[in-house]
Amino acid sequence: MKKIGVLTSGGDAPGMNATLRAVVKAGTYHNLEVIGIEAGYIGLLEGRYRNLDILDVEEIVSYGGTIIKTGRTKEFQREEGFNKALDNIKNLELDGLVVIGGNGSMKGAQKLSEAGIKVMGVPGTIDNDITGTDYAIGFDTACNIVTETVDRILDTATALVGSTPRVFVIEVMGRHSGEIAMTSTLAGSVDALLIPEQEVDYDQISANLKRKFELGKNYGIILMAEGVGKVDEISRELEMRLGFKVRETLLGHQQRGGRPTAFDRVLGSKLGAEAVNQLVKGESSKMVGVRNNVVKAVELKVVNSDKKKFNTKNYELTKMLCY
Amino acid sequence: MKKIGVLTSGGDAPGMNATLRAVVKAGTYHNLEVIGIEAGYIGLLEGRYRNLDILDVEEIVSYGGTIIKTGRTKEFQREEGFNKALDNIKNLELDGLVVIGGNGSMKGAQKLSEAGIKVMGVPGTIDNDITGTDYAIGFDTACNIVTETVDRILDTATALVGSTPRVFVIEVMGRHSGEIAMTSTLAGSVDALLIPEQEVDYDQISANLKRKFELGKNYGIILMAEGVGKVDEISRELEMRLGFKVRETLLGHQQRGGRPTAFDRVLGSKLGAEAVNQLVKGESSKMVGVRNNVVKAVELKVVNSDKKKFNTKNYELTKMLCY
Amino acid sequence: MKKIGVLTSGGDAPGMNATLRAVVKAGTYHNLEVIGIEAGYIGLLEGRYRNLDILDVEEIVSYGGTIIKTGRTKEFQREEGFNKALDNIKNLELDGLVVIGGNGSMKGAQKLSEAGIKVMGVPGTIDNDITGTDYAIGFDTACNIVTETVDRILDTATALVGSTPRVFVIEVMGRHSGEIAMTSTLAGSVDALLIPEQEVDYDQISANLKRKFELGKNYGIILMAEGVGKVDEISRELEMRLGFKVRETLLGHQQRGGRPTAFDRVLGSKLGAEAVNQLVKGESSKMVGVRNNVVKAVELKVVNSDKKKFNTKNYELTKMLCY
Amino acid sequence: MKKIGVLTSGGDAPGMNATLRAVVKAGTYHNLEVIGIEAGYIGLLEGRYRNLDILDVEEIVSYGGTIIKTGRTKEFQREEGFNKALDNIKNLELDGLVVIGGNGSMKGAQKLSEAGIKVMGVPGTIDNDITGTDYAIGFDTACNIVTETVDRILDTATALVGSTPRVFVIEVMGRHSGEIAMTSTLAGSVDALLIPEQEVDYDQISANLKRKFELGKNYGIILMAEGVGKVDEISRELEMRLGFKVRETLLGHQQRGGRPTAFDRVLGSKLGAEAVNQLVKGESSKMVGVRNNVVKAVELKVVNSDKKKFNTKNYELTKMLCY
Q1: Closest residue of chain B to D180, computed from CA coordinates
Q2: DSSP C26-87
Q3: Residue B271 in contact with residue B135, Cβ under 8 Å?
Q4: What is the ipTM of this complex?
């Protein structure tokens, strides 16, 4: 093994640069040349790449985004595009490829793998919805951003006394997953959680808020995952039941940006290095993840066929804390 | 002068606690008893108050919100309510009153003043829309929160390569004022600014973005003040002209929360102390503000009759930076 | 079981308030009265305590420190003091006690346990040096503070060009443990790590830095755990070998403060709730921890007799990243 | 005027990149070519430079450091070096030069000016010790970093109960100036301030702390500017008087790094744009600053001959707040 490629694909996630640093450092340690392919599978198709050596990654660990860009393309899924990608991998003489990204990216990685390329996946997505790893890179940073938002809203919620209680609804990311909203509920002063994994019961939420108002609390903070709907629709439902206006926040794409947390950088460092180690050991067609605090590789087949299990214990805990 | 009251009124703003600290410390320095009236004019009406001594304020300077709460009430504006407030001021034997708040609060302060109460106003509102001061307490913190959001969105904006450029629209607070949006545009990587003080020209914004896309930039970040409309309406207008989907962020009430910046705490310290100094000197019916970097008191009449002048120079600068 | 006590003891750690919230919420869920004992074992000795109900903990999750204070006292270790503590537990009619703290606190918990008190420990210390848990509450926050410091120093390190390279040495906390320094090295742009678990080789560190200078890097950032010495001594050793002045940072007690991270709050929430659950189930004389991402209880005897194992894998990874 | 140069010199300061953005955007607005000279006067001497166009600065406003590096060199002060610099300015056909930096940099700017070069200075230094401007770029960010440190130390100071009070001494930057320490004292929970502009009276500081301990406060936080000595020396003096150990923090170079605050970015934007405007208007040999909230240009002669006046009013306010 002399030369490996690395790409970041799909939605960007904070910590991808920490992962790149580890891939390059580990590659150098194993005397490999490391090629950074730009804009995900787009770069594979179009032959956009550059050498990455130690000095290229020496200062990037704190950056959001990804220095080799990420991208989305449908062309890669078509035969012609896919074959172009294979050709470029051959022309580049890559002995292995590290693919950093989310669910879609892992599917692409498996396809390349089935075409004979030595591929190792690394889970990077704020949604944390990938089977085979307890944590995906970027998730912790996103949760901290949401948590900070809840903290700030709590400041104003507790400061202002009005004739009616004030209720705030915050829409957070996660696509089909409620992981960000659920973990941020464990971390924040939150009174209700709405996630796609659980049926939404507006009546119950309103009743719980009203019970709290009677106890003397004069505000409520609600976290909702984008998977359950739009913040304005949910707010209307609650207003109907509460009888007064609720305030909305739509956090948006800032959840994908910002300085990654120490946790995401450490995770990226471990997984990036392990991905290279696995390729060097001759492994392929796997994704490195962290399971039960241990870094290990899982078959991409498993990653791509199983849906991540919902954490019922955490959900129960949110109910206790929201009560 | 033996005893003064202090209250925070209207929308809370980060730095109000720093102001309270200064009022209490300056009061103590002048051998005054300081009474904290709770929930703004509500506390005056209902006789809700407590003593504030040095130890009560020794640790509050970093807190968001306000330890004596703020509030909004219409009752105070009616004769009966207003008279109750006057009675309570007399019963409390207050020789002076410091009112920390925004435009509405300064109007209430003037009314009390006209009824013979020695009142000194302090401008506290993130909107920074008060005549008589270059900066209101809380504004700098709000701008930093918006700026951080723009930074984070920039991370993902620059990281992801797609078939179309990505455009992000961020709605920020300010009521009828565009100050937060305008100052945050000077501070951030922003491509267009929409504020109520200027006519909104969607065609020109779209044309400018397209020009930038042709230069090679593949994203755009737009800041809009709530005074120009709702983020979803503005986004639809832009989508029509750009031909692709734009992403929305509605920052919401988090702009009022969080640890105040050093600037807002220093401002609150200066104005809070000066408010007491002015009362001790026998001044009344004024608001202390910072003009041209100098702390001075302005007649509440002037504060409440003049509209804050729009900063044309700053607006011209945003156009240069957005270009 | 009708009534439990909770205390925070030893060095404070960010996330202790999140833990308290969970203890009170879980206690309420199980219909228990929860008594907050103040200032750790001092409060047990002196009978200082107060009731904690849901509204007392509704807004504390974001606070640093601990609302019931923590403390250190030698009196508790003496027979007389210890007996007073036992008496107070009896007088308070506590059916169980949750002790949140570090190694010293767990020893105290075991002693109470041996005297017949139902005790459940929760690991809270930034040092992360407690056996029986992969993570102690507060550690993640401390690592993020150190990481932010490294990021900031990197900014100036890379900005300034001088005639000699610039080397920065940062002393971080951890007592006898190098965990904070080691994890922050995985997370940051660090060139050398000095920890008490490994022999310090100044010659090798200097040689590695010189090699990097020759590659074109003109600065170096070094993390040292307080367990290896004082930052000024270590700096002198390095200056002798490098031939130029190095810059020092002594981070100090700020590593124990600040808004806890989402991770520490989630950890505190899980462990706090589980501690109550365990007591309710009749368990005692244990510490709840998180092992391999699963919350479980370990015998206090084991916690207090075994030294936490050094993570050799992480250390190897730091060497790869620092190279 | 067709072509201007820009350089950042001396100690780097957060906000320098915002200033560069504004210089390039304003230059482009005036149809000027903008040349970024690298590493301050070093780049002038060695002819290291590169073109800067709009896309080069579109994303830099949030970065710490400076993308064209800064530097210090004694060669520029010698005749031979200075003449090389003049030659390079001629060879580059620069019609004007913007110099961003601190006191030393302004002296160099004046020298170039006296040799016939059209130069405009911009004050950038965290120390805020430059005559002719109320605020230098970078100062606000440094004060926020110090303030955050004080906040964190307050968390642990208030959390831990011990047999003796806990006193924390924090050494901050500022060279011969106490501005950072003084402003951060206005912003934080600080009990004593030591700055070079005022005589240090250890006895009085200790007496004030003891008075506060008697009031019931069991900790103290002290800010000292590096201009008064080393944190360990000052700590020994205090320990002698207090009779117990004090804790030390040496903040170090992190005060120069990190994401610049909105204030510093806005200031950099205004001053950078105005520097270009002034050059275009034919002005030279001046420094643009902000005085009384108005941007204006001051003669470099004045900047370099007068010492910045100490703000006595702010100092008096610190005494009131520390009491």
Answers
A1: B262
A2: HHHHTT-EEEEETTTHHHHHHT-EEE--HHHHTT-TT-SS-TT-EE--SGGGSHHHHHHHHH
A3: no
A4: 0.97
> Which candidate from C186, C294, C323 shows the least CB-CB separation from A266?
C186
The tens digit of pLDDT for each residue in A103-153 reads 999 999 999 999 999 999 999 999 999 999 999 999 999 999 999 999 999
Smallest CA–CA distance from A152 into chain C, residue: C62
What token pair was written down for B66?
Answer: 């306000």
Across the interface, which of D152, D154, D250 has its CB nearest the CB of C248? D250
CA distance C184 to chain A (A): 7
β-sheet bridge partners, residue C277 = none
Q: What is the pLDDT of residues C103-152, one digit of tens each?
A: 999 999 999 999 999 999 999 999 999 999 999 999 999 999 999 999 99
**Residues of D with catalytic annotation?**
127
| Chain B nearest C-alpha distance from A14 (Å) | 9
With contacts defined as CB-CB under 8 Å, which chain A residues touch B249?
A: 250-254
- Which tokens sit at A136? 């995906």
Residues C272 and C247 in one domain: no
> Which residues, 6+ apart, have CB-to-CB distance to C256 below 8 Å?
C11, C12, C13, C14, C64, C126, C138, C142, C173, D152, D155, D156
Report how many Cβ contacts below 8 Å link chain A to chain B: 149
Measured in degrees and rounded to the nearest 5, phi and psi for residue D275 equal -60, -45
CA distance D9 to chain C (A): 9
Of A154, A273, A323, the CB nearest to C320: A273
Residue whose C-alpha is closest to residue C152's, from B148, D260, B149? D260
Say which CATH number the domain at B129 has. 3.40.50.450
Neighbouring chains of D at 3+ CB pairs within 8 Å? B, C
List pLDDT tens digits, range B219-234.
Answer: 999 999 999 999 999 9
Q: Mark yes or no for CB contact B155/A256 under 8 Å.
A: yes
Residue, of C200 and D163, whose pLDDT is higher: C200
CATH number of the CATH domain containing C203? 3.40.50.460
d(CA D314, CA D61): 30
* pLDDT over threshold 90, residue B162: no
Residues of B with catalytic function: 127
Q: Does the residue D318 lie in any domain? A: no
Q: Which of A12, A56, A87, A127 is catalytic?
A: A127
Find the catalytic residue in C12, C53, C95, C127: C127
Q: Which of C103, C186, C198, C192 is closest to C143 using CA atoms?
A: C186
Q: Is residue B317 part of a domain?
A: no
Question: How many angstroms separate the CA of residue B277 from the nearest CA in chain D?
Answer: 12
Look at residue A311 and tell me if it is in a domain. Answer: no
> Which pTM value belongs to this model?
0.98
Q: Does residue A319 form part of some domain?
A: no
Q: Could you tell me if D270 and D296 lie in one domain?
A: yes
What is the rounded distance in angstroms from the CA atom of residue C166 to the CA atom of residue C235?
12
Query: Residue C69's domain spans which residues?
Result: 3-138+260-305
Q: How far apart, in Å, do the first and last CA atoms of chain B sit?
A: 56
Q: Answer yes or no: do C8 and C102 share one domain.
A: yes
CB contact under 8 A, B249 and A248: no
What residue of D is the nearest CA neighbor of C163? D73
Residues contacting residue A223 through CB under 8 Å, at least 6 positions apart: A146, A150, A170, A172, A181, A184, A185, A188, A190, A192, A193, A194
Which residues on chain C are in Cβ contact (under 8 Å) with A317?
A: 269-270, 273
CB contact under 8 A, C317 and A270: yes
In sequence order, what E strands does chain B have?
Answer: 3-8, 33-37, 49-51, 70-71, 96-101, 119-123, 160-161, 166-172, 192-194, 219-225, 246-250, 286-291, 294-299
Question: Same domain for B125 and B268?
Answer: yes
Q: Residue D261: list chain B partners with CB under 8 A.
A: 144, 147, 261, 263
Same domain, C36 and C59: yes
Based on the structure, what is the number of domains in chain A?
2
